[in-house]
Design brief:
Strand content: 15-25%
Helix content: 25-40%
Number of helices: 11
Shape: globular
CATH class of the largest domain: Alpha Beta
Structural class: alpha/beta
Radius of gyration: 20 Å
Number of strands: 15
Distance between the termini: 63 Å
Largest sheet: 7 strands, mixed
CATH architecture of the largest domain: 3-Layer(aba) Sandwich
Length: 333
């Protein structure tokens, strides 16, 4: 008798990306409300929703998050989960603000028939992201593919080093939130290092922190380029948010006055999502700073496209009293 096909629920976008990259997308039977699927992929049941209105301003979202006082920010559709009869549920144990909590998932899984396994990942740096890929590969009998995927991180680092070895490292600032402004966190500092840039707001494996006006001013003064990879925001959403910040907002005023290059990155798809698309994040960063058109990566790994997409990153310019998109990535001044 043939074994029944494995049924996997993925409740974190980076885990869904990992399954696709390992070539086992057909095992996915349910996903979170934030997960993306490649073009042409059939829609799958979505099992979570956010209790906070994420269409609000970044300041209002921050206030709502803080007012929850540790309660879960996400709902899990337990009835739908039960109907899917998963064998394995993939979730995270890292950040209860970014995705549904491990406790909520474990509690729901314990009540399901068949006693499905739960794998909760907790990456805080690129080493942890690679370990996450390795663990998922082992669970899905794709250890070889996982090792090959992890190898792309080393390959990209080596090729970036060889390409810009004679170029002086630029000081850059990366912010993960606008109001209040928050520094680069976790693996993002390492992404800039991989791209041969000196990111000065954060440190590897350290969480993002709120920057006061003095700290922000100092960091922006020392930076030659500014990157805005706002958690959960697309480029257009980041642009909109910049334009509604109050005129006296320190970040808004500083960016307007400095006349430095400012780049917005789609941080819903890239940057803050632990998984294979962090490779794409490095390519997007490099194009902004070095104008490189070299691929350095395969167009696709397994079932996951790795090439940067239109709208992943944009150069922003202050003109006629507002922020607008000046050029696409890879065409920096």
């Amino acid at each position: 008798m043939m074994p029944k096909p494995l049924r996997v629920v993925s409740l974190l976008p980076g885990l869904t990306d990992t399954l696709l990259a390992l070539g086992v997308g057909e095992t996915i039977c349910g996903i979170s409300h934030e997960c993306d699927l490649p073009s042409g992929w059939p829609e799958l049941p979505r099992l979570t929703r956010c209790r906070i209105d994420d269409s609000k301003s970044s300041k209002a979202i921050d206030e709502d998050v803080r007012s929850h006082n540790g309660t879960d920010l996400y709902d899990l559709d337990s009835e739908l989960l039960a109907s899917l009869r998963p064998d394995l549920i993939l979730t995270q144990a890292q950040c209860d603000v970014c995705a549904i909590s491990e406790k909520t998932v474990a509690r729901a899984a314990a009540s399901l028939p068949g006693n499905p396994a739960v794998l909760a990942v907790h990456p805080i740096d690129l080493g942890g992201v690679c370990q996450m890929i390795r663990e998922v590969g082992a669970r899905l009998d794709r250890s070889k593919s996982a090792s090959e995927l992890i190898g792309l991180f080393d390959k990209l680092k080596q090729e970036c080093n060889s390409e810009v070895i004679n170029q002086q490292s630029l000081n850059v600032a990366h912010l993960e939130w606008l109001d209040p402004p928050m520094s680069s966190g976790h693996w993002n500092h390492e992404l800039f290092q991989m791209a041969r840039l000196n990111e000065i707001t954060g440190a590897a494996a350290k969480p993002s922190v709120v920057l006061n006006d003095r700290e922000l001013r100092s960091l922006l003064d020392e930076s030659e380029k500014i990157f805005l990879g706002i958690c959960g925001f697309s480029v257009d959403r980041t642009l909109h948010e910049l334009n509604i910040l109050l005129p006296e907002n320190t970040l808004s005023v500083a960016l307007q006055n400095d006349r430095k290059e400012v780049f917005a990155i789609d941080a819903h798809r890239l940057m803050v999502r632990p998984g294979p698309l962090l490779l794409t994040s490095v390519l997007a960063i490099r194009r902004c700073c070095f104008g490189s058109d070299e691929t350095l990566l395969p167009d696709q790994f397994g079932q996951l496209p790795l090439r940067p997409q239109a709208g992943d990153v944009a150069w922003l310019e202050w003109t006629n009293g507002r922020w607008c998109i000046a050029e696409s990535a890879g065409e920096s001044k």
